[in-house]
Structure formats: C-alpha cells, structure tokens
Amino acid sequence: MEFVTPVQKSCYEKIKPWMEELFQDAILTMNDREPLFTVNFGSASAFTEVVPWGETEAIVVTQACVVTNIEITPDLMYYLLRENDSLYFGRFSIDSQDDVMFEHSLVGSTCDKQELKTSVITVIKFADEYDDKIVAKWGGQRALDRQLVPAPLGEDETEEA
Predict the structure, then answer these.
(1) pLDDT in tens, the chain (161 residues)
(2) Cβ-count burial 119-130 (b if 16+ within 10 Å, e if not)
C-alpha cells in the first residue's frame, strides 16, 4: 500500500484495528492498494478512506452513495439543501457523476475510536434511510440496486456456456 504522506500512513495504521474491531463481519473489503475500508449495512455501503491534508495532517472521510442514476432537479437540490440545514452531523452532496452522496469527515490526528464509530454508523444509517425516500420521490437507484445489476458484456467479452 502506498501513502502520500507519513501522517496519512500513521492515521491509517491507527484506525485500521478500530475498523476491524468495530465492524468485523460488516467490512466487505479492506483495500490492499489504498487506505480504504468498505462497510455494508442494509441497502447501503460506506467507504472510509484516509486522505492526506497537506503534509502535516490526514482526514478520515466516510462517504456513502445514496442514490445513483437520478435526474438532478431543482426540487431535489432544494430538498437536499434543506436536509443539510437540519442535520448536525454529515452532509449531502452531488458527486462528479451526479450521484447523491452522504459524507462526514474527521481530523485524523485527533480522531478517536468512538468518533470513528459514530461517523461511520451515522453515514451508513443516513444513506440506508434516505435512499428509499429519495428513490420513491425522484427516481434513480439505491446504491445496492446498482451493484446488483450485472454489468453489460463488452464487445470482446462473451458469456461462458
């Protein structure tokens, strides 16, 4: 695994045993190539990643895709902004692929085990709660539904008989 800064590596090494202990069987993957963990709960998956913040700090970012393949409308954006205003913890966003995301970040050097647990659980529970609400009103797919749809075969790929 490669790290951009020593602080990023130190933070990853600090939270790795906590993630293993806190989420045990719920951890789908612990990526060997990058400082990333995937945790499943209900219809949602959360990704917790340690990213560098300059040379002297790291950020622990937990993010979940709430809804994908959705038309971004003014009504949806207004709803997400109003929800952000009522939330004390985390925020909704739209990523570069127009997926509705929910995320929360912690400062790596001061992060403790309880904070990490609260952050990951909150992100994944909000994603699991809001995916059904958003799909029911605005369409799209829950992240889990998108993962369950088999990818189309490419031109040079064939099904095995």
Answers:
(1) 889 999 999 999 999 999 989 988 776 666 677 788 888 887 788 999 999 999 999 999 999 999 999 999 999 999 999 999 999 889 999 999 999 999 999 999 999 999 999 999 999 999 999 999 999 999 999 877 765 444 444 444 444 44
(2) bbbbbbbbbbeb
Decide if 77 contacts 134 (C-beta within 8 A): no
Residues contacting residue 136 through CB under 8 Å, at least 6 positions apart = none
DSSP assignment string, 67-96: EES----HHHHHHHHHHHHH-SS-EEEE-T
- Is residue 91 a contact partner of residue 102, using CB atoms and an 8 Å limit? yes
Asked if residue 105 lies in contact with residue 63, where contact means CB atoms within 8 angstroms, the answer is no
What are the structural domains of the chain? 6-148 (3.30.1460.10)
Global pTM reads 0.82
C-alpha 109, offset from chain centre: 21
Name the residue among 43, 28, 33, 26 with its Cα closest to residue 12: 33
